[in-house]
Amino acid sequence: MNKFTRSFALKITGALLISSVAVNALFAKTEDEASAKLEALSKLTKTISTVEKYYVDDIKFKEIIDKAIAGLMQNLDAHSSFLNEKAYKDMQVQTSGEFGGLGITVGMKDSALTVISPIEDTPADKAGIKAGDIILRIDGNSTIGTTIDEAVNKMRGKPKTPITITILRKGEQKPFDVKIIRDLIKVESVYAKMIENENILYIRVTNFDKNVVTKVKEAIKEHPKANGIILDLRNNPGGLLNQAVDLVDLFVDNGIIVSQKGRDTSENVEYKASASKTLSKLPLVVLVNGGSASASEIVSGSLQDHKRAVIIGENTFGKGSVQVILPIDDTEALRLTIARYYLPSGRTIQAVGVTPDVVVHPGKVPQSDDSAFSIKESELKAHLKSELNKINPTSEGNKTEAKDDKNIITQKKVDEDIQLKTAIDTIKILKIKQQ
Fold first, then answer.
1. Could you tell me the pTM of the whole model?
2. Where is the PDZ domain (predicted)?
3. 294 catalytic, yes or no?
């Protein structure tokens, strides 16, 4: 054997030895993992058997398993959960669009059951429930340690039935009770108005159902000569991802809108804008607050990253994870977090939220002496019209007032909302810069 042959043979032998060691290590690792799984399963089996045999109450085996699964899901994150037969049916009722309840969206924040937002014109909204309120008790029962699904099930019920929730609110010295009468919850997802004395289109999106993009398109097409658009996403808890993506696409003509990344690479998706879907280049302002979550944060954060809109208001809720319903069988399922959303810049929404470009806390617009007199004068005018209507309920003046109030954001309403007033002023500045 010559020197070259011997050297080549040594290299082959060395390679085979390395491969053999690698394969053995792989097998050893696989065996260790399998052994660890068997030990863990053995521990679970022993625990279940011990509970079944010694627990003070007689619990059926299926109930023990259900509790074990529920505990597992609850400890993964605040949004994953086990849907037993009742919870699964309740979820299907909720997604149908009509159900008896209070009209609030809740989530877990810092392990506390927190109101993400009240839905407009629902019992909770009328009772004064606010985004950020912590629900301490439901009908006297503590919510500490409860899951979102358990809390929602307790709050949902037949219309016209009462419920009392105990609220802890920032700025209040102690918790207080709020009595609410449940009702059938029907939500109008989009409505559009013009700002009085301003050629600005105001579009309010209360939640992202399947009709959002269609209705927003209609509103924009009906007002092609508007000087700008104010998109109000305050207290919008989210909804359908495709509606959020397509809404951004109406204002952005290229680039990533949002990306979704999970442990399973098959869940990794990039949603991109298309120039063919772009509908408006008008100056745009988006209003957000602590009740803006999920899809609302995708819309506001994406428009912010694309520098397509000025975001005004308060920091958003911070829910940027993706949940899917995975059936176990025909009657039960898992709600499981499978991925997180990332904005075009690569930043995450989860537990962070979207920080506005202009931070404005809610409140009334400060008034000078002259403007205060103007408001008092308009209030007197409204009062006189009201008195006139008592004499002649069908007067044309009253009809016009009602029509105007339905289709227009009045100056009085603007003066009561400093966030909206800031948005109007910002549109004016953006319009000047655009010229």
1. 0.72
2. 90-156
3. yes
